Automatic annotation (TrEMBL):
Pfam families: DUF6897. It comes from the Archaea. InterPro entries: DUF6897 (IPR054192), MM0924_fam (IPR048163). This is LSM domain-containing protein.
Length: 59
């Protein structure tokens, strides 16, 4: 998943679903060492890649 995110979504605004109520939104800043970093309103969120179930571009 890490190489897929870097290749296709770096710099893209995404919705990220991790199960249950856990959905995150933000622009992909980086993806390395098993961690996805997104930025929303100058706040960074770091998500463990192995917890991600689905991603889609924010419309």
């Amino acid at each position: 998943m890490q190489s897929f995110i870097v290749k296709h979504y770096l710099g893209t605004e995404l919705d990220i679903y991790c199960g249950g109520p856990d959905t995150f939104k933000g622009t992909v800043e980086s993806c390395a060492d098993g961690v996805l970093t997104i930025n929303k309103d100058n706040r960074y969120t770091h998500i463990a890649i192995d917890k991600i179930i689905a991603v889609w571009e924010e419309k």
